[in-house]
Design goal:
The protein is an alpha+beta fold. It is 27% helix and 28% strand. The protein has 16 helices and 31 strands. The protein starts with 20 loop residues before the first helix and ends with a helix.
Length: 568
């Protein structure tokens, strides 16, 4: 491709409101343009990069037995109702009616549709099956941000496996784990595989592939001493035991005027330190109130509560609902003496005594609370969010917690969808059994952004060869006849040798061309100009290292081809 004929609209300034490095550089480098919040057009260079990523994914999924198909974006709402997700997913699901008044949705995943197709499988002899597609997904994202990292419209590779039993499904899950590791390695992404919440997808287990980045919106807890890693939505840790406070024969009510927070009570004269307080939260799960109890210094990880309750709707209670239920406002709440209400407590409260909690009377707290004696806990559930510096649950190491970008997610779905849609086969004994399913996703646009986020410097992008829109750029520092002729010959020879080459033949100043070449991040640059040609030489610059070498003109094609092939 000749730059004079290409559409690569580079910009000198960052786009307004952009925070993520990938967002800034992909816009400035002419890879994408925003249509509206959360919706982007990929320009030719951006499309080339994404196409490279798609090719890598295709090769690796085909290698584990994948068969490509294509499913619709528009789904009848009825199939989402059959799976139970029409209501569970909530406002992120785009809903619409056709001219006949029939409800439809715009799919952001395809478990329902693929399971309907799978109802045509009849026998275990047809298994295992692995089907995948690349399809546009739509999600009514409430806070689109960071360019391609959080959008409303995106292309995803989603694959689905079908087996006769959990053992077969586990094998396909492991195959995807290996394939995903290869995919991301080929893209140049250093990923961490972490335990994760399955959320609205359902199923027994899931693993996310995370890339450490300050632009990420997920938090990962990882132990440097062993292989433990988990999203904080699932993570566990070891923490020191806390001595119980002084016991009392019964809880004692004390006035605490104006005290409404854990911190305020810790500073109040006669109060209690945070680790000797009981934090009481009120949630509404499927319109039923639930009291949630944690140690005062422990944050709630809401996804853990969501996963445990498996409620279709879960929300914090409104203040008027809290007052009606417990008789006090937030800041004075507790579970002592409360009955007829579901009370879920974190295990760190087990066996605790000498605790302080709200008295369910404004401006009063109770001291000397013994959890086992005074609170009718109905369920003990790990709901605490782990923090950096806490102990690893698997070894004597210390957890680190960092931000990360989720670039892939694999799920063991079990039989949830096959049972809902009657996707059954006959086993070797002639018995009808539901298909055991898995689901596996990679967002292509997010992968582009993750590569950009982790491969850049102060001058611009630094694409790995495997995903670069072009592998080599030839920069002509002059446009005299001899330079043009030499550049055209190199361009033709490199292209014939299978090297993807961009020829910068624009009538621009050399500085502009060099800046643009660095901004768009092409891995190797050939500088062609009268001075070098006079000595029979061409300068070869490696974008990642900045290393420059003068190579004889008659050997530059083989030299560059070798560099490219070694880096692919």
């Amino acid at each position: 491709m000749r730059w004079s004929q290409a559409f690569i609209p580079t910009l000198r300034d960052d786009p307004a409101g952009a925070e993520a490095i990938s967002h800034k550089l992909l816009v400035r480098g002419g890879f994408m343009r925003q249509l509206m919040s959360g919706s982007y057009s990929l320009l030719p260079a951006g499309f080339r990069a994404r196409s490279k990523i798609r090719r890598i994914i295709e090769e690796e999924i085909n290698a584990i037995g994948g068969q490509e198909l294509l499913m619709p974006v528009l789904h009848p709402a009825e199939v989402w109702r059959r799976s139970g997700r029409y209501d569970v997913v909530g406002d992120e699901l785009f809903r619409l009616q056709d001219r006949r008044g029939v409800d439809h949705v715009l799919g952001f995943t395809n478990e329902e549709i693929i399971t309907l197709i799978a109802t045509e499988l009849k026998s275990y002899k047809q298994l295992p099956q692995l089907w995948y597609h690349f399809q546009t997904k739509l999600r009514d994202e409430p806070r689109p941000k960071s360019g391609l990292l959080r959008v409303r419209e995106f292309v995803m590779k989603d694959s689905y496996s079908f087996d006769i039993d959990a053992e077969g499904q586990a094998k396909q899950f492991d195959n995807h784990h290996v394939a995903y590791t290869r995919i991301f390695t080929r893209m140049g992404l250093d990923t961490v595989a972490v335990e994760a919440s399955s959320g609205a997808m359902g199923g027994s287990d899931s693993v996310e592939f995370m890339v450490k980045s300050t632009a990420g919106e997920d938090l990962v807890a990882r132990c440097p001493n062993c292989d433990y890693a988990a999203n904080v939505e699932r993570a566990q840790s070891r923490i020191p035991e806390v001595e119980n406070g002084s016991g009392l024969a019964a809880p004692e009510k004390c006035a605490t005027p104006g005290v409404r927070t854990i911190e305020a009570l810790a500073q109040f004269e006669g109060g209690a330190t945070a680790d000797h307080q009981i934090k009481t939260l009120v949630y509404v799960a499927d319109e039923e109130p639930v009291l949630v109890l944690l140690r005062g210094d422990h944050p709630l990880q809401e996804q853990k509560l969501t996963d445990y309750l498996a409620a279709q709707t879960l929300r914090p209670a409104q203040e008027d609902e809290i007052v009606e239920l417990l008789g006090a406002h937030p800041g004075s709440l507790g579970a002592v003496g409360v009955d007829g209400v579901r009370i879920i407590a974190d295990p760190e409260l087990k066996g605790r005594s000498g605790m302080t909690t709200g008295a369910n009377e404004d401006d009063f707290h109770l001291h000397g609370v013994d959890v086992a004696r005074d609170i009718a806990v109905t369920e003990w559930v790990d709901m605490r969010e782990v923090l950096a510096g806490e102990g690893c649950p698997n070894c004597d190491g210390t957890l680190e917690v960092f931000k990360a970008i989720e670039v892939g997610h694999i799920f063991k779905l079990g039989t949830r969808y096959s049972e809902a849609f009657g996707a059954n086969v006959l086993d070797e004994n002639g018995k009808t059994r539901p298909l055991v399913m898995g689901s596996y996703g990679i967002g292509l646009g997010r992968a582009v952004a993750a590569v950009a986020e982790t491969h850049n410097d102060e001058r611009g992008l630094v694409w790995p060869v495997a995903v670069a829109p072009w592998e080599v750029i030839i920069t002509l520092v002059k446009t005299d006849e001899a330079t043009l002729e030499a550049g055209e010959k190199l361009y033709g020879d490199l292209t014939s040798a299978g090297v993807e080459t961009l020829l910068d033949d624009r009538k621009e100043r050399p500085g502009v061309k060099f800046n643009d070449a660095e901004l768009i991040g092409i891995p190797f640059r050939l500088t062609v100009g009268p001075r070098g040609l006079g000595d029979g030489m061409v300068e070869v610059v490696v974008r990642a290292s900045g290393e420059a070498s003068d190579i004889a003109l008659d050997g530059v094609v083989s030299h560059v081809k070798g560099l490219v092939e070694a880096a692919r």
